[in-house]
Amino acid sequence: MDDNSIFFTLPAADGQAGMRLDLFLRETVPAMSRARLQKLIAGGCVSLDDNIVADKDFKVRSGDSFAVFVPPAEEAEPAAENIPLDVVFEDDDLIVVNKPAGMTVHPAPGVYHGTLVNALLYHCRDNLSGVGGVKRPGIVHRIDKDTSGLLAVAKNDFAHQGLAAQFFEHSIERTYYAVVFGRPEPAEGTITGNIARSRFDRKKMALVENGGKHAVTHYRCLQSANGAVSLVRCNLETGRTHQIRVHMASIGCNLVGDRLYEKSGKTKIVGLSPETKAFVNSFPRQALHAASLGFVHPRSGEFLQFSVDFPADLHLLLDTCLLNLGASPK
After folding, report:
1. Do residues 297 and 185 share a domain?
2. Which of 22, 64, 93, 144 is flagged as catalytic?
3. Could you tell me if 51 and 112 lie in one domain?
4. 47, 140, 144, 277: which is deepest, by most CB within 10 A?
5. Which domain holds residue 106?
6. Is there a single domain that holds both residue 213 and residue 300?
């Protein structure tokens, strides 16, 4: 049943005469729960012959046909929650945080608590931009739930518009580190390909020849463990949903731990000990970290650059595979 619509019930049959209105509607409109229908009745959304019927106990008569108005769903306002934040930078205009893997950026269907927005509402109180709407206050850009790393959040509309303009112009500097299966060939290059929602799996994004959004990823393989897994640095020229995950998969180098885009042959990797192979194949999230973020401060005009080290789980993955940067990304 679509929200923000009016529909009419079929006329009540003789056998339905005398039924309570809420029970009649529940029988006639099985797509809605009785509790939802009772709320619609109490809210004046049900009428008979242009007269509102606000009593759920109203007795239906044979031949009665009711009009039911379904108002648009209201956005649930996220609640402030006292969730610790790793704050990298903060002033009156913006805040830069190091998001842990496993935290969703903003509320979505089925995820109403424990998000970055819930934490920001507690930390910043009422000081967040309203441009993103009720569910996404201050949110200018996102990273996936299971990706760790840096996010810039606007504390007012001026900062939001200034940051959004830089993202639109692709002038934001973003560096990610990924652990991937295999070894990219060539070891350094640029992947260009439009990205759109997959026609076969709506949870996935895919490279498409027609339509989609232009996407560019510059990558460099920093180190490889016998060609089995590699540490890759990715610099984003654009920022599309799942961009690095889709682009790396397109060259046969799916991210370790990425169950959505994994290849069925991932367990056949060679060149690693059985223990290391088992650890790599059981890594619980995509091995992707947003390590560096650079942009021009919307108010001061100063260029700001922030970097954060790998989280503990990625350090363990790198150590297990004998991969290292020589120096941390921080």
Report:
1. yes
2. 144
3. no
4. 140
5. 87-169
6. yes
- Tens-digit pLDDT profile for the chain (330 aa)? 444 578 788 889 999 999 999 999 988 877 778 888 998 999 889 999 888 999 999 999 999 999 998 876 655 688 999 999 999 999 999 999 999 999 999 988 778 899 999 999 999 988 998 877 777 899 999 999 999 999 999 999 999 999 999 998 999 999 999 999 999 999 999 999 999 989 888 889 999 998 889 999 999 999 999 999 999 999 999 999 999 999 999 999 999 999 999 875 454 577 889 999 999 999 999 999 999 999 999 999 999 999 999 999 999 999 999 886 554 455
How far lies 289's CA from each of 13, 62, 99, 245, 309, in Å?
62, 65, 10, 12, 9
Q: Report how far apart, in Å, the C-alpha atoms of 42 and of each of 32, 47, 54, 56, 68 are.
A: 15, 11, 5, 7, 12
pTM of the model: 0.76
- 82 is a domain residue: no
Token pair, residue 220, equals 């460099």
Cα distance between residue 176 and residue 13, in whole Å: 64
Residue 2 tokens, joined: 């679509």
Report d(CA 232, CA 316) in Å as an integer. 16
Q: Tell me the two tokens of residue 304.
A: 């700001």
Q: Which residue has the tokens 């060609």?
A: 227
Specify if 79 maps to a domain: no
Distance CA 152, CA 146 (A): 17
With respect to residue 41, please indicate whether it lies within any of the assigned structural domains: yes
Sign of the CA dihedral with 259 first, then 254, 261, and 290 last = positive
Strands (DSSP E) contained in 215-318 are 216-225, 229-236, 288-296, 303-307
- Is 144 catalytic? The answer is yes
Our count of domains for the chain comes to 3
CA dihedral 41, 42, 43, 46 (to 10 degrees): 20
- Residue 221 placed within a domain: yes
